[in-house]
Every structure is written in C-alpha cells, then in structure tokens.
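lol ok so funny story. i was supposed to be doing the assay writeup but got distracted and ended up predicting the structure for this chain instead. priorities right. anyway since i did it might as well share w the group, maybe its usefull for someone
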Amino acid sequence: MRLAFLGTPESAVPSLRALVEAGHDVAAVVTRPDGRRGRGTEPSSSPVKVAALSLGLPVRHELAGLEELGIERGVVVAYGALVAASLLERVPMLNVHFSLLPRWRGAAPVERAILAGDEETGVSVMSLEAQLDTGPVHLERRVPVDDKRASQLLAELAQLGAGAILEVLATPSLLERPRPQVGEVTYAHKLTSDTYHLTPSLDQTMLLRTVRLERAFCVVDGRRLRVIRAHAVDAVGARAGGLRVQGGEVVLVGASGDIALDEVQAEGSRAMAASAWWAGARLDVERVTWS
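and the output, tada:
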C-alpha cells in the first residue's frame, strides 16, 4: 500500500521500520522540524527523520501537498500536531495511540496510566479525526502496567503498535469496519514540572509512581535533586519533610509514607547511589529538609 507516515519521537520508529520491512511503499515521511532537543545548542533531527533517512525515504516537515502524492493511507504515530479535517477528507489516516481508548486521549497517555495506577494499558489503532483521539478503533492490544518505568512501558507499546498497524493494514475486515469508542473518556493532559515534583504531601504510592516517570525531583536544602530510583520503606517515625539515614538507606519522610532513595543526581553532578550522594553532601540530618 502507498502510505505517508507522520511521526516524530523514538516511539514512532518501530512502526515506520515495520511498514518498510513489510513491503509498504512509504512515499513520504512527515516529522516535526529540526530543533533543540535537550541541552544541546545545535538543532537536531527527530528520531523519525534519522530513521527515515537511513531507510532512504523522503522526509518533509509540513503536510502541504501530501494529497498530491497518490497516498492511499496515512499512518500517524506520535506526530505531535493535529491534522486538519480538510486533509483527512482527501487522505484517510490511521493513528497508533498508546492507550486503550477512550481512556487517556491526549498527549501523555503512558505517564497518566502510571500515575493513575492503571493495571493495564495498551495500543489502539484508530481512524484519525480532526478532534483529539475521537476516531473509531480498528484494533487494540493490551499489556499489564505492573511496576514498569515510563520508558520501559513506552518501548513495549511502541513494538506492540508496530505489529498492530501491520495487522490492520493486512486485514480488510479490520481496516474497513472499525468500532466506535465505548466507555468513560479521560484525558492525558500534558505533563508539567509540577507533575514530576516530589513533595512530602504526596502519599507513598504517588511518590513511587512519580519516580517511575523518570523525571522526578525534589528540593533538598534548597537544591534540586533528581530521584532516579527509589523504593518503599516502613515509616521511620520522623517529621514529614525531613530526611533520615536508616540501615544505610537515605529516606525521604512523607506525611503519608516514606521512600528510600536508591539512585539520585544532584545539580551539576552525575547519577550515583543515594548513599554516595549523602556522603558527599555533608548535610545535617537533624536540620535538613526536602520539599
């Protein structure tokens, strides 16, 4: 089938590669423009652009003129922008979305599933509509969330989505007869710095779920500390907002449950074991606070 592929991040790459390996004619790859990603000062290409160029595929950064390429279908995976209804009328598109729709429509379905404590999530292949993630579903595949970190779960869903889009394209009954979304609609709103901020007011469960998003941080003695890994511990009996060193573990004391830090990264430093960070920080355990 002659396709256009719309995608940007690493999670979209497995679907692009799968389409090419299955013999589909990917006539155009549309991705977000080059830009600064991370702390680098030089603009860099998106993972999808890098993969497309390695596969010898034509890349563009805008949708204008796409309908002139004889495209039969568009495949959209984490493109990062809405597609106008006028284009969808001329080029029907399928969207690989990383949730079980209509749960977690929107920008951050994987992280929201973790924060909500969902037991399972999955992939939905839907017909793309101009409204946000409202289209009928052709196929869904489910996976348990367990205690997976965000990157682990996203990587699993990316592979699952690659297989699902191939199945839909290869199966006329799935392609031609999607089902309407059924169930309670929830929205995966964009994440902000506050989403990742660990504070003593969060209970133990939410502290650990936030750590699993892999960008969690707290402020210790006025300085930002990234929390990479942590685990639950029994209450150490100290005041909320304090720290304790118990059994060789550095413990953040919360109002509704404590967590022990396993791996952290202080400002201007590398990631290290929490015990090594504590030894170097030379903080007064009786006075230091976290927030």
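The chain has a mean pLDDT of 95. The first helix runs from residue 13 to 21.
back to the writeup now i swear
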